[in-house]
Amino acid sequence: MTDTEHKSRQELVTANHILAREGVMDAFGHVSVRHPARAGHFLLSRSRAPELVQPDDILEYDAEANALDGAGQAQYIERFIHSEIYRVRPDVVAICHHHSPSVMPFSVAGVALVPVYQHGAMIGRHVPLWDSREAFGDTNMLVTNGAQGASLATALGAHWMALMRHHGATVVGTSLRELVFRSVVACKNADYQYRAMALGPVAGLTEGEIELAAKVPAAAIDRAWDLWARA
Ligand code: MN
Predict the structure, then answer these.
(1) For the residues 162-187, what does the mean pLDDT come to?
(2) With respect to CATH, is domain 3-228 assigned 2.60.120.10?
């Protein structure tokens, strides 16, 4: 294994721990990163609670979401979310799927998430809602195959986050650290928006504000990463 791949796997372990500790994921949810050398492939833990993920749990998946080295190990049923988004979004390097308590009410009520503060701008000016009923009718509310993953990827389009009706959310980023930052601040944004809506109508940031505020410097993302990654 190259040093680059080793580092990528270590950072993915840290990302799992951060997203669990910051309340984005609990026993469920998963985070992946595109393979640093094989662009069609990605790294993702075997089926395990994110807070418990260790380097040995990280598996390499191919473009069809088959684990290359995962014989006999339980895998995340919803791994097709990752394979299908990587397939159609060459700009995406990392993906997180979760059911955070802060975003669930929006996915249930079908209320649009809008950026309501500086870092919340990273969710982008539109967060689409994917409704699995439109193509698949009644399901068990999971993304269990490539067709469902592809449908979600189509709904996501060129955006940074999609809500999934009565299910949760999927967030993407151009790096693992950016993805972790966006996932955490998106949950904060949902909390703030929910509370603000209890006080009165919420308009959110303007398009110009979103464009400007979404450019969060790498140094700020690293500052948050260092804090969240502390043991
Ligand atoms: Mn799910």
Answers:
(1) 98
(2) no
